[in-house]
Design brief:
56% of the residues lie in helices and 11% in strands. The strands form three sheets. An eight-stranded mixed sheet has the order 8-7-9-10-11-12-13-14. It folds into three domains: 15-386, no CATH class; 414-514, 2-Layer Sandwich (Transcription Regulator spoIIAA); 553-742, Carbonic anhydrase (Beta-carbonic Anhydrase, Chain A). With 749 residues, the chain is α/β, with parallel strands linked by helices. A hairpin with a 4-residue loop joins strand 11 (714-718) and strand 12 (723-726). It contains 32 helices and 14 strands. Helix 1 (12-45) packs antiparallel against helix 2 and helix 1 (12-45) crosses helix 3 (81-91).
Length: 749
């Protein structure tokens, strides 16, 4: 028996070591952040202080254990403060616990229905505005507590009552609250080693110590007993069940959206981790946590993005961190009740004012302004602040949807004279019956008898818009005018009335651009059909570019490639008219004996007359010339004599050319390996040509080799050492015998 089988299993040790090394210290950091916030949120909502601590315990242990996220931290959240306060005012605290249970059951249904990702469809601007509105409400309410008074039930009352509150300021409360604000604002500017200790904890501890030595009165929070003494059972609320259901739905939706946004943010931070959040399971875990929290007298819980990111940055690796955080809160609340009673209300008010203001992010305002969503943002904030959160969310979503519809159906119609006797009418966007009034107004500008080009770039065309255009065209032509259509969009006038209108797809447009040579029917000449399509769709676009080339050409590159019909040089090099001086022959060969007068003339003309700056040889996969060369097939025709120019490539291939080795390592077959070697050999032949050599030495002409793999539609660079995959950013990775290294490349076409 081998000694390996005699060794005891060691599977548990790495997990325990990881917990002690990473999760345990991370849980302590999150606990220190969570504790003051949990107490402050409970005070701000008008709930018992113990309710915030209970929610922190349940959120950490239950949501952490059952949820689908590894590192999210759940607990009472500022985004629910306004809703919970309204529920307490309307139904009482015990009934609010019942509503929390109902909200949790709804979240469980959300998770079981697998609609978690659907909640992410809420427009981000609405979510950002909701959070900003909540921040304003919290700040307005807590300013009164900071000044020594009590928070008021509405934002309007908070604003109106502020002058009276300022006239009766309690000096001790104000000093304590301002100290907390100053510490929190300054904490971010301190060196990183100092900021290892959470700023909220430092601020609350400092304020508590200051309150003990101040000669004036400072109001403290009320906690009658330990956390276990404060457990309360929910009570069925009295009142309208519609209002109760609406409150439960509001809490469930807000908690779910915040949880999902937090999960997305945490996953984005952990891009290299394979453990992504199971969003549906996370909703189930949050729902179970809310059911438990409501049953034992706790606040509603949700995943909190600030605590979650703190957990990640503190080095947590697994669920143990968030669960331990909940246990630390439980231990503190049971064993250190006296410490909790010493915390001043004004200290928590200062903490919540900073938290509220931090919910208003200037970056979100700037983004809303930049994207044209500022109206949605502002309206949502105003409604949340002066009415309620649910109405604000509804107003925001309705405005966002209305703005989306307006953008979708918006179309630009413009008529202008481009030259004497010639007019252009451009239609760009989604062309529907809503645009007909604008269309008729613009068409009325066109004088009778002019030559008109109607340039349409539309992705949707309904029957009313189609008929309006056709009727005007028919009437205009009867009056002696001419009308030409140029259709560059994804939807065409032809066939628009054959069926229900449908939105065009950009891929269809691309296929039309790339495929004009496809046969449209046995009775139609494909070339003639292609020319007709070109005149209809692209000639108008080409005209301005070709206008500058009418007197001569200034190509950038000489492009030598195979005569194979599957290679489209301008497409695979993303070049335009006049960029390439192209030579095509069977096998993309450069005869070394310079007896081919056509090839010789092209080389001399390109290098000496056109002053091209690069010369490119491009081979391709499945080349018939390379296949004939590899099999040494004899055709008995002039093709045999032409392929003799590629015999050096075959010899180098058989000797194990580095390019062949690299191509084989990349998975290419023998014929394609030979094709790549042939490109490398033709480059050497080009460099030996005196005209090319002089261009390289005197003008810095660059020689480059390419290989087009037809099956994948990818282009690789061929060098003397191997082949290089050309990425989206133009930085190739050259493969030499299976080894990959990043290299710089010369300028290619």
């Amino acid at each position: 028996m081998s000694t390996d089988t005699e060794q005891p299993p060691r599977t548990s040790l790495p997990g325990l070591a990881e917990l002690v090394r990473h999760d345990l210290p991370a849980s302590l950091v999150v606990f220190l952040v969570s504790l003051p916030l949990s107490i402050g949120i409970a005070v701000a909502a008008g709930a018992p202080v113990a309710a915030g601590l209970i929610a922190a315990v349940v959120g950490g242990v239950v949501a952490g254990l059952i949820g689908g996220s590894t590192l999210q931290v759940s607990g009472p959240t500022a985004s629910l403060t306004v809703v919970v306060a309204e529920s307490i005012n309307q139904f009482g605290w015990a009934a609010t616990c019942f509503i929390t249970v109902a909200a949790g059951l709804l979240q469980i249904l959300f998770g079981l229905s697998r609609i978690a990702r659907g909640a992410l469809a809420i427009a981000p601007v609405v979510v950002h505005a909701m959070l900003a509105g909540i921040g304003v409400v919290i700040a307005l309410q807590q300013v009164h507590v900071l000044l020594g008074g009590n928070s008021l039930s509405s934002s309007w009352e908070s604003i109106v009552g502020l002058p009276q509150e300022l006239r009766s300021v309690h000096g001790g409360d104000l000093v304590v609250g301002v100290l907390v604000i100053v510490i929190l604002v300054a904490w971010k500017r301190l060196p990183a080693p100092v900021r290892v200790v959470p700023g909220p904890l430092v601020a609350v501890v400092a304020a508590t110590l200051l309150a003990l030595i101040l000669p004036t009165r400072v109001e403290h929070i009320m906690l009658n007993g330990s956390l276990l003494d404060e457990l309360r059972l929910p009570r069925v609320p009295h009142g309208s069940w519609a209002a109760i259901a609406l409150m439960a739905v509001t809490i469930a939706l807000i908690a779910s959206v915040e949880t999902l946004l937090s999960a997305v943010a945490v996953d984005r931070i952990r891009q290299n981790s394979a453990r992504r959040t199971d969003l549906d399971r996370e909703l189930i875990g949050q729902g179970v946590a809310n059911v438990v929290s409501g049953l034992v007298g706790g606040l509603p819980v949700a995943a909190v993005i600030v605590r979650s990111i703190t957990n990640v940055k503190a080095g947590a690796r697994g669920k143990a961190s968030t669960m331990l955080c909940g246990l630390w809160v439980l231990l503190f609340s049971v064993a250190l009740v006296g410490v909790v009673r010493q915390i001043p209300k004004a200290a928590l008010a200062g903490l919540l004012i900073v938290v509220g203001i931090q919910l208003i992010k200037l970056a979100h305002v700037r983004r809303a302004q930049r994207t044209g969503d500022l109206v949605v943002y502002a309206a949502t904030v105003v409604v949340v602040v002066f009415w309620n959160l649910l109405l604000g969310m509804v107003v925001g979503l309705v405005l966002a949807f209305a703005l989306l519809l307006w953008r979708l159906v918006r179309v630009s119609v413009h008529a202008e004279a481009v030259e004497t006797g010639r007019w252009r009418v451009t239609v760009d966007g989604t062309f529907t019956f809503l645009a007909v009034p604008k269309l008729t107004a613009e068409l009325a500008k066109v004088p009778t008898g002019a030559d008109v080009v109607i340039e349409m770039s539309v992705d949707f065309l309904d029957h009313a818009a189609h008929d309006a255009v056709q009727e005007w065209v028919a009437e205009y032509r009867t009056e002696g005018g001419t009308v030409e259509f140029v259709e560059m969009g994804t939807v065409r006038m032809a066939g628009a009335t054959d069926g229900p209108p449908a939105r065009g797809h950009s891929r269809h447009m691309l296929n039309e651009v790339l495929g004009p040579w496809r046969r449209t029917g046995a009775e139609v000449d494909p070339i003639v059909a292609g020319v007709a399509a070109y005149h209809r769709s692209h000639a108008h676009v080409m005209r301005p570019h070709l206008g500058v080339l009418r007197d001569g050409q200034e190509p950038d590159s000489l492009f030598v490639t195979c005569a194979d019909s599957r290679i489209v040089p301008n497409v695979i090099t993303n070049s335009g008219p006049g960029d390439l001086f192209t030579i095509r022959n069977v096998g993309n060969l450069i005869p070394a004996d310079r007896q081919d007068t056509s090839m010789e003339a092209a080389l001399v003309y390109a290098l000496d007359k056109l002053d091209v700056r690069s010369v490119v040889v491009c081979g391709h996969s499945g080349c018939g010339a390379m296949e004939a060369l590899h099999s040494e097939a004899v055709t008995g025709s002039d093709l045999d004599g032409w392929l003799a120019n590629a015999r050096p490539s075959l010899a180098r291939f058989r000797l194990g050319h580095p390019v062949a080795v690299a191509a084989a390592a990349a998975g290419f077959g023998p014929v394609d390996q030979l094709g790549m070697v042939n490109v490398a050999v033709q480059l050497e032949t080009l460099y030996a040509h005196p005209v090319v050599r002089r261009g390289v030495v005197e003008r810095g002409v660059v020689l480059s080799g390419l290989f087009f793999d037809i099956a994948t539609a990818r282009v690789a660079e061929v060098t003397v050492d191997g082949i290089a995959e050309i990425g989206d950013h133009g930085v190739p990775q050259i493969r030499v015998g299976g080894r990959v290294q990043t290299v710089g490349v010369g300028r290619t076409a």
